[in-house]
């Protein structure tokens, strides 16, 4: 019998559908799920609320070390301002080190874990037996984010969202520390022309193949 935790690493750019897909996968396999973007967002929110600067790495690291993984809630952390601040502090190596340590501890929970983010397959869990890189064109991702906001009854500007998606991509892919990129052994899942259900089916067959090989 093996007691080793089974980890599924899911990476990709903003609004590619990783969140929905990760939650579905975690539910299907009875695994714990961590949306690692929320750890960056929670750090950013704590800095903003305390009136602390977003460009002081030592201060941001201290706050990052205080983030509790248990109570992270996307609804409370979804504001645009928090996302922008999160992507600024996510370039800081000391902040990343602190949050990666906490994410690695989470990844060891039995019986298995699903972590989604930007650097899970490359940095946080490089030994994960399943790595997925979920992507879609910037146009499709902007449209999905727009539809999601409008479906909540709010108003949105598609062009502004598109520009925001592209800016976020540049920052995530262009940073020196842990830039967003597929791990060499990641399965690429382009969901531009795929429903979330089709993406889930594709992910499930990849995971099941690895699970049966490991059984
Ligand atoms: O996925 P998100 O929008 O909630 O992520 C917020 C910011 O955190 C985003 O700019 C990318 C960054 N991030 C990261 O650098 N590494 C991760 N593993 C997850 C998110």
TrEMBL record:
Catalytic activity: dCMP + ATP = dCDP + ADP; CMP + ATP = CDP + ADP
Domain Cytidylate kinase, first and last residues per copy: 8-200
GO molecular function, one term: dCMP kinase activity
Biological-process GO terms, alphabetical: pyrimidine nucleotide metabolic process
Keywords, in A-Z order: ATP-binding, Cytoplasm, Kinase, Nucleotide-binding, Transferase
Main location: cytoplasm
Protein's UniProt keywords contain Repressor: no
Binding site for ATP: 12-20
Assigned EC number: 2.7.4.25
Listed GO CC annotations: cytoplasm
Subcellular location: Cytoplasm
UniProt family annotation: Belongs to the cytidylate kinase family. Type 1 subfamily.
Protein name: Cytidylate kinase
């Amino acid at each position: 019998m093996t007691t080793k935790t089974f980890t599924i690493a899911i990476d990709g750019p903003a609004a590619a559908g990783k969140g929905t897909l990760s939650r579905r996968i975690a539910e299907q396999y009875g695994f714990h799920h961590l949306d690692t973007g929320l750890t960056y967002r929670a750090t950013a929110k704590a800095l903003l609320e305390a009136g602390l600067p977003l460009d002081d790495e030592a201060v941001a690291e201290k706050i990052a070390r205080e983030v509790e993984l248990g109570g992270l809630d996307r609804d409370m952390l979804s504001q645009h301002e928090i996302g922008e601040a999160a992507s600024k502090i996510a370039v800081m190596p000391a902040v990343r080190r602190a949050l990666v340590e906490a994410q690695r501890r989470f990844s060891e929970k039995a019986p298995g874990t699903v972590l989604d983010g930007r650097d899970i397959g490359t940095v946080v869990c490089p030994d994960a037996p399943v790595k997925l890189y979920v992507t879609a064109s910037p146009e499709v991702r902007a449209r999905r984010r727009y539809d999601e906001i409008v479906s909540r009854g709010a108003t949105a500007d598609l062009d502004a969202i598109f520009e925001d998606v592209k800016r976020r991509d540049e920052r995530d892919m262009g940073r020196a520390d842990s830039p967003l990129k597929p791990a060499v052994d990641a399965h690429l899942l382009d969901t531009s022309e795929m429903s979330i259900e089709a993406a889930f089916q594709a992910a499930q067959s990849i995971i099941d193949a690895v699970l049966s090989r490991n059984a």
